[in-house]
Design a protein that fits this description.
One of its GO terms (biological process) is response to stress. With 498 residues, the protein is an alpha/beta fold. It is built from 18 helices and 15 strands. It has helices spanning 7-35, 38-52, 75-85, 153-175, 193-198, 221-236, 238-243, 262-273, 288-296, 309-312, 337-345, 347-350, 369-372, 388-399, 408-417, 424-431, 437-460, 465-497, and strands at residues 58-64, 96-99, 108-111, 116-121, 124-134, 140-149, 179-182, 204-207, 249-255, 276-279, 302-306, 318-319, 334-335, 355-361, 379-382. The strands form four sheets. Strands 8-7-10-11-14-9-15 form a seven-stranded mixed β-sheet. The N and C termini lie far apart (78 Å). Bound molecules: adenosine-5'-triphosphate (ATP) and magnesium ion. The site of magnesium ion has 4 residues, from α8.
Length: 498
């Protein structure tokens, strides 16, 4: 005991003895570090930790960044990192780490070394701690420590950690920037993109920024519902496909006049499923062997699109070099329809999971029977002219007009559309011409009336219905080929800018 008077002297004595104690400890530690080999030191540390840690009712799981062989990433660790980024709140103190890759839409925020995050799951309180351990080879070993009451061990392993994995893959999917792969684009220099898609197939990519979704697509509502249900069923049927011994792929044939939304539907499917698109122009392929290489270099969870399959296959039996014709050629030196079908049926689908193949055509009647054979393309979708319902959706999207609106022009156009063959592309183009809904609708009404007069004139001149339709297709083709050329220019420009 000290009297008040003696206090300052006592305090300074205490401080000086504490300082000399700390200095001595540091000295001993540094001598020990020099003398005791690293593995023995680690062992002594853990022994010390074991002997002096009070017995606890808690259990701690260690989740390392790499699996025990040190070669492969530990999926639980990666998932935990993503999952915990959603658990960082404004109240989180300490230091945070921020990152973003090419394929992520937004920033990812994670905790720093030794920081902790609390979580709750079904009334279980869990504590995550991020730990970095320096290793002899200068690399850091990272892990998460997950601590909770030991009576919840089974629940954490059977329910909580699977929940963390599911949430992480959901977040990853939403965060992923979709890619449009094309063999005209330069190789993607994003390490995950170019490497993945470019491997041997000559694919380059740009970000897929097509805004089409099922909500913006004007088509028969029941057909739209059926397509969404079909996609959902396909995605969740992994085990089913395995059980019945079928490759996990689904083929769609979209047919209909130009401008009815076939390409838009493909973009909507990709945006809905979060699948990349591989846009394959068969005119750039000269042999079955090349086709096989190109298809094998595509990745899982993707949609392979072959547009205008009727035109593409006009060049069937095309040869690599004309002079090959003089010789007996190996079947792989030319591109054939059967080569394409065999690849799609067999080899390619076997080595890929969750693949969707879409063929589009303006002329289903021109397609080879082999393509239409049952079981080849699982779903045939007829994309047709704009209906009254389609107009309502487009008017709502483009002009913000609702069905209940009192505008007489809206109802006039609705009536006209039901009787005239006009494509959603044509309607959309007219609606975009003016911000003022009245002016835009007036323009569309005039356009529809002119179309009707043209149709009647042709009929009066004795042109039968079939020819009227053919003429409409030609006119429409002209319009759309203009749009198509313009879009190709835009894509090329984007590639060059990149
Ligand atoms: N069903 C639709 N719903 C909403 N917009 C559509 C629809 N169809 C066409 N459009 C509009 O018209 C544009 C062109 O349509 P799209 O390229 O999807 O037609 P397509 O059927 O693929 O034509 P093509 O046969 O020439 O390839 C789209 O970008 C979109 O703005
Ligand atoms: Mg198209």
């Amino acid at each position: 005991m000290f009297t008040l008077k003696e206090m300052p002297t006592a305090t300074s004595t205490l401080f000086s003895s504490y300082a000399s104690f700390a200095a001595t400890t540091m000295l001993i530690r540094s001598i020990a570090n020099e003398l005791i080999p690293h593995p023995l030191r680690l062992y002594l540390n853990s022994l010390f930790h074991f002997l002096f840690t009070p017995l606890s009712s808690n259990l701690t799981l260690i989740i390392d960044d790499y699996s025990s062989n040190g070669m492969t990433r530990n999926q639980v660790y990666d998932a935990a990192e993503i999952y915990l980024s959603t658990k960082i709140h404004t109240s989180t103190k300490g230091r945070l780490r921020v990152s973003k890759t090419h394929r992520q839409k937004s920033l990812m925020v994670t905790i720093e070394k030794d920081e902790e995050i609390n979580d709750r799951f079904d009334n279980i309180r869990l504590k995550w701690r991020f730990v970095c351990i320096e290793r002899q080879d200068q690399n850091e070993k990272r892990c998460f420590e997950l601590t909770f009451h030991k009576k919840f061990k089974d629940k954490v392993l059977d329910s909580y950690l699977p929940h963390v994995l599911d949430r992480a893959s959901e977040i990853r999917n939403n965060e992923r920037v979709l890619k449009l792969y094309n063999r005209h684009c330069p190789y993607d220099n994003d390490s995950t993109g170019g490497g993945r898609g470019g491997g041997g197939g000559g694919w380059g990519s740009i970000n897929l920024e097509h805004p089409a979704t099922f909500e913006t697509l004007a088509m028969d509502p029941s057909m739209k519902k059926a397509i969404i249900a079909d996609l959902d069923r396909f995605v969740r049927r992994k085990e089913f496909y395995k059980k019945v011994g079928k490759a996990w792929k689904r083929g769609y044939l979209l047919y209909g006049p130009p401008g009815t939304g076939k390409s838009s539907l493909i973009a909507a499917m990709a945006n809905y499923l979060k699948f990349d698109i591989y846009d394959l122009e068969l005119t750039t392929i000269f042999s079955n062997a090349e086709l096989r290489r190109v298809l094998l270099s595509t990745t899982n969870r993707s949609i392979l699109v072959i547009e205008d399959i009727d035109c593409s296959m006009e060049m069937k039996d095309r040869h690599t070099f004309d002079h090959y014709e003089q010789f007996d050629q190996p079947s792989n030196s030319k591109l054939t329809l059967s080569g394409l079908l065999n690849l799609i049926d067999g080899l390619w689908s076997c080595c890929g999971d969750e693949r969707i193949i879409v063929f589009t055509t303006n002329h289903k009647d021109k397609l080879d029977d082999a393509l239409l054979r049952p079981g080849r393309m699982d779903v045939h979708i007829n994309m047709s002219y704009c209906s009254g319902h389609g107009f309502k959706l487009l008017a709502s999207n483009y002009l913000g007009l609702q069905e209940s609106c009192q505008n007489p022009l809206y109802h006039e156009v609705h009536g006209l559309i039901e009787t005239i063959h006009v494509t959603p592309a044509e309607v959309a183009e007219m609606l975009m011409k003016n911000d003022d809904a009245n002016v835009a609708l007036q323009g569309l009404a005039g356009f529809l009336k002119r179309k009707r007069i043209e149709e009647n004139e042709m009929k009066n001149e004795g042109v039968d219905d079939h020819k009227v339709n053919e003429a409409k297709k030609l006119k429409s083709n002209d319009d759309v080929s203009r749009i198509h050329k313009k879009m190709t220019r835009v894509v090329r420009r984007k590639c060059v800018q990149k």
